[in-house]
């Protein structure tokens, strides 16, 4: 969710303080493959971690996720996050499929060899020793295929991972096709009760959440794209996904009235916009410049469009209006007016999202081997 699931999105999702999730995922921090050693490296790593705030959402813990392959730098980052930034956990990203990442030996490229996985997780574990942070890890089922899934899971466990999030796609799949939840069930069989497994992939509704839990017996569920499609998804799951008397996961009737949903989505959009509009105070270009003002409006409108693209795609009544929003010209309409237009569409057209998969990521990005 890098680029969408950032601080702006998290704050907007938690606008009323009751987001419905038990953990607000992670702040993403990319550690370069090479840095000078010693004090210089330590300073650079601290700067990279500077934006992380464990208390960003108050009562919901925010973990830190780091991505890299250099063991010494991973240890430095984890140590700083655990000791100085009070991170409740430091998560190692072994799942990113982007070529710009895997080409540098990071992300899902670590899955090519279980030794890479062990060394990287162990480096993070060394960093958090003596702190209150735990080390966790997110991975995909494999690089080109899932042939090393067992070995990679065991390597993560043996290196000290306290729980593991598994996105049930390979790196080669990117975000295309269906997630193979049977691989999450396999992970549970491999690790048993030693290390909890968080199942991830294609959970875009309470129904899919219950299906994943039934199929995989996962200890928890991670949601990414589904939260952009439906900002209420965590609340829906908390309210409707329950075990029956036989211990089987079931979905009860949706608990929310349309008026409540519309109010929540409008608040979500306004809070997101407020966070985006704060960017005006952070620009380094000269004040009063006409070029600067145009660039600022384009930035604001672009961020609104990025959210609408996914929010509307998951809503049958709003889906036909995507192009209307995409055609908004920041030279002719201010970001504030664009937000008003989007809000009016939500108030008029919103319906509860149904069984919809958001596939826009796979449409905009191709991941080459």
UniProtKB/TrEMBL annotation:
Listed cofactors: FMN
EC annotation?
1.3.1.89
- Reactions listed under catalytic activity: 5,6-dihydrouridine(47) in tRNA + NADP(+) = uridine(47) in tRNA + NADPH + H(+); a 5,6-dihydrouridine in mRNA + NADP(+) = a uridine in mRNA + NADPH + H(+); a 5,6-dihydrouridine in mRNA + NAD(+) = a uridine in mRNA + NADH + H(+); 5,6-dihydrouridine(47) in tRNA + NAD(+) = uridine(47) in tRNA + NADH + H(+)
Key words of the record: Flavoprotein, FMN, NADP, Oxidoreductase, tRNA processing
A Pfam family reported for this protein in Swiss-Prot or TrEMBL:
Dus
EC class of the enzyme, as a word:
oxidoreductase
Which PROSITE patterns does the UniProt entry name for this protein? Answer: UPF0034
Residue span, DUS-like FMN-binding domain = 59-246
Query: What are this entry's molecular-function GO terms?
Result: flavin adenine dinucleotide binding; RNA binding; tRNA-dihydrouridine47 synthase activity
Quote the PANTHER family the UniProt record gives.
TRNA-DIHYDROURIDINE(47) SYNTHASE [NAD(P)(+)]-LIKE (PTHR45846:SF1)
Which family, according to UniProt? Answer: Belongs to the Dus family. Dus3 subfamily.
Q: What is the recorded name of this protein?
A: tRNA-dihydrouridine(47) synthase [NAD(P)(+)]
């Amino acid at each position: 969710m890098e680029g969408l699931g950032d601080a702006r999105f998290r704050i907007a999702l938690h606008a009323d303080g009751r987001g419905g999730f038990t953990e607000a995922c992670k702040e993403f921090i990319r550690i370069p493959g090479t840095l000078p050693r010693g004090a210089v490296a330590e300073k650079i790593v601290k700067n990279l971690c500077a934006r992380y705030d464990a208390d960003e959402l108050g009562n919901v813990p925010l973990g830190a996720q780091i991505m890299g392959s250099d063991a010494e730098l991973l240890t430095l980052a984890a140590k700083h996050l655990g000791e100085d930034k009070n991170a409740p956990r430091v998560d190692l990203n072994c799942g990113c499929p982007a070529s710009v990442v895997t080409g540098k030996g990071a992300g899902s490229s670590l899955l090519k060899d279980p030794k890479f996985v062990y060394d990287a997780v162990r480096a993070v574990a060394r960093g958090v020793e003596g702190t209150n942070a735990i080390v966790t890890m997110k991975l995909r089922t494999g690089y080109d295929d899932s042939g090393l899934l067992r070995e990679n899971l065991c390597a993560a466990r043996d290196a000290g991972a306290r729980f593991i999030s598994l996105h049930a796609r390979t790196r080669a799949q990117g975000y295309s096709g269906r997630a193979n939840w049977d691989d999450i069930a396999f992970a549970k069989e491999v690790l048993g009760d030693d290390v909890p497994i968080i199942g991830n992939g294609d959970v875009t509704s309470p129904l899919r959440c219950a299906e994943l839990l039934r199929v995989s017996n996962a200890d928890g569920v991670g949601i990414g794209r589904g939260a952009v499609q439906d900002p209420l998804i965590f609340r829906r799951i908390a309210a409707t996904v329950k075990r029956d008397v036989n211990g089987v996961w079931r979905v009860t009737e949706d608990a929310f009235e349309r008026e409540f949903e519309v109010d929540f989505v409008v608040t979500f959009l306004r809070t997101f916009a407020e966070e985006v509009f704060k960017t005006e105070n952070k620009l380094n270009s000269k004040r009063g410049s006409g070029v600067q003002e145009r660039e600022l409006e384009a930035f604001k409108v672009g961020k609104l469009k990025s959210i609408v693209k996914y929010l509307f795609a998951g809503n049958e009544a709003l889906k036909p209006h995507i192009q209307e929003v995409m055609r908004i010209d920041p030279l002719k309409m201010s970001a504030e007016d664009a937000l008003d237009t989007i809000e009016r569409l939500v108030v008029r057209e919103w319906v509860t999202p149904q069984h919809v998969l958001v596939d826009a990521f796979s449409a905009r990005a191709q991941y080459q081997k």
